[in-house]
Structure formats: C-alpha cells, structure tokens
Amino acid sequence: MTNLFFGALRIAVLLALFDTRPQVAGLTVGGAVTYVALTQVFLSAFSLFGWYDFMRTIHRGEVASDLLRPLNLLGFWAAQDAGRAAGQLLLRGLPMLLLFMLFWQADLPLQPLLTLLSVVLAWVCGFAFRFLVNCAAFWWADAVGIGRFAWAALSLGCGFLMPLALFPAWLRETLNFTPFPSMMNSSVELWLGLRTGKAAWAALGEQLLWAVLLLALAYMVLGRGLRRLEVAGG
C-alpha cells in the first residue's frame, strides 16, 4: 500500500509535467506511468535503498565463520542475494506490477527476452557495487555513512529518482561513464522500447561489461580486505 501511494504521487508529478504534450524527452504518458511502476517493482529486488548485510558480518566478526565454509565468499553472498532478489521480484514486484497495470494501465515489456536479460545484468551490476561498498567495513569501523552516500548516488544515477531522459544533457553524458545506468535505467529503457535493435544490444553489452568489471573489482577488494582482517585478535 505504501508503494502504491508513493507511486500515485510520482505519477501525478510526471503527468503534471506532460500537461497536454504527447511526449517529453522521448517519454509518452504511458511510458512515464510504466517507468514509475518499474521503479517501485525493482526497488526492493535491487536494494536501491541500501544493503548492509555483508558489512554487519565484518563488524560483528561473523565473517570468520563464513570463511570456514568450503565456498568462495563472493559467490556465497552473490547466491544469497540472487535468492533474495528473485523472491522480492516474484512475491512483491510482480503483484505490484499487476496493480499498476490495473489502476494506471502500465505497459508490458516491448522486448520481453532482452528485458529479462537486462534485468539479470542490472542485478549483477547492482550486487557487485553494493558488495564493494560493504567492503569498506574492512577499513572503517563504521562504514554505514559511506553506504548512505553510495545509495544516494545509486538512486540518482540509476534513474530511480527521476528518468535519466529528463536530466540535462551534460549530466546524462557524465552518467554514461559510470555503471549506475546499467543498474536499472537500461532495463527500463528496454522495457519501454526506447532502445531497440542495435541500441538494445549495445545497452546489454554495456551492462555485461560493467558487470564483469565490477565483479572483478569486488573480488580484488575483498581479497585485500581479508588480508588485513582481524577477528578476536587473530
């Protein structure tokens, strides 16, 4: 109910922006409504308001027991987060989407398969970024503040707060050099059909590139953090 309420507010703001115009920055009225629906659907699945689970295990020393498991620590957390994200998407996001379709006629994806691939890659990029932020706990006694700045940048850069199409051109170009659009905006644009053909495959390529780079960086930072980890004096 809370998400529907905030969704209604955001839809009202965007519809006021359109007034009598059929399009604004390439977005139609139906596209704007669907954009709001998708941001509410992906909100929990992509943990856009923050994720501190790994950070807490470092601060409490629980990471030591995780290291005793015969598993790669990064893969261990990726598997947990994949299950959490899938559960949120199916049990919370899908009913939310159906309600937005019922009340505001949100659109179905115009490119279902490409959109699905994009959503998976968006989760990978987002998880790797969130894991990197959590690794700050290896160097700072209280890294929650760093996380808050990171989540604010994520919400802005991935297009959660506002469609990136409405940003000034210079800011959009700047964000294109960051991984943030690959964490949600690319999926929304594919869903809405704003990127089709070669542009759609280019978007998927960008997401795949960022996913590989961020995972590699997370693996490297995790290794450096574990080398300096001290639990109970040992």
Automatic annotation (TrEMBL):
Keywords: Membrane, Transmembrane, Transmembrane helix. The keyword DNA repair does not apply. The keyword Hydrolase does not apply. Pfam families: ABC2_membrane_6. It comes from the Bacteria. InterPro entries: ABC-2_transporter-like. The chain crosses the membrane at residues 32-52, 89-106, 112-137, 149-171, 199-222. PANTHER family: INTEGRAL MEMBRANE PROTEIN, SLR1174 PROTEIN-RELATED. This is ABC transporter permease.
